[in-house]
Amino acid sequence: MIPVEEARAAARSQDLDLVEIAPDVRPPVCKIMDYGKFRFDRSKKAKEAKQRQSQIEIKEVKLRPNIGDHDLETKLNRARQFLESGNHVRITIMFRAREMRRPENGYRLLERAQEILDDSAQVAQAPPPTLQSRDLSMVLKPA
To answer: What is the pTM of this model?
Structure first.
C-alpha cells in the first residue's frame, strides 16, 4: 500500500493520471494510466459492441378466423419469406363481434399455420391458453 501523495507524484513524473479503479474496496485500488486514452478505448469498444449486436425484427401477418384456403396460403407464403430472411413472425388472428364466441376456430387456424410453416419455423411464443382480448397471436422464429 502506497500513500496517495506518493502515488500522485509517481503519476505526475510519468505524465500519466492516477485513476481510482475500485473505490468501494478497503483500501481503494488505484492505477497509473493515461485516462484520456482509456476513455477513448472504452468508447471505441462500446461502438464495436453496438455494431456487432443484431436487432430482431418481428414482422406481423394478420388473419381472420374465416379466411379462405388460398388467402391463407398467400399470407403464409409471405410469412415464410420473412422467416427465410431471418425475421421473427407474429401471426395474429383478429376476431370481430360474433367470431369471439368461437375462439377455438382461431386456435385451429394457428395450429394449421404452424403445420404449414413447420419446415422453416419453430414456435418462439405459443398462443395463450385462453382468449384475453380480440386478438390471438403466436410468434414464430426461423428454424
So the answer is: 0.63
